[in-house]
Design goal:
0% helix, 4-stranded antiparallel beta sheet, mainly beta, 7-stranded mixed beta sheet, single chain, 124 residues
Length: 124
């Protein structure tokens, strides 16, 4: 059974930084795709960043490029999202997600495994 558990959310001022973590159990870090998504109140869940841990291949939403970095520690079965230069519009619930194939895009419909989410709030 795959379990994804996020942590690291919180409240910061604009321009600040946070690092989100997602510990995976029952899931193989290899050529499968993992990612971070976010959902703000009243909005649809959107893709933020994805990665294939075994290859290091990444992709980002335009809104977070140059500010966010996705990475993994395969030995610790942990996915990270380093978020710098945070903006109020980054406020959302952030979710870790994974699936079992190598096609890796920001399309949330591809992802079958989800964490419970961690809240990020950025104040101006």
């Amino acid at each position: 059974q795959v379990q994804l558990v996020e942590s690291g959310g919180g409240s910061v001022q604009a321009g600040g930084s946070l690092r989100l973590s997602c510990v995976a159990s029952g899931y193989t870090f290899s050529s499968n795709c993992m990612g971070w998504f976010r959902q703000a109140p009243g909005k649809e869940r959107e893709g933020v960043a994805v990665i294939i841990p075994g290859w290091g291949t990444t992709a980002y939403a335009d809104s977070v490029k140059e500010r966010f970095t996705i990475s993994t520690d395969n030995a610790k079965s942990t996915l990270y999202l380093q978020m710098n230069s945070l903006k109020p519009e980054d406020t959302a619930m952030y979710f870790c997600a994974a699936h079992n194939h190598w096609v890796c895009t920001l399309n949330r419909a591809d992802f079958g495994y989800w964490g419970q989410g961690t809240q990020v709030t950025v104040s101006s």
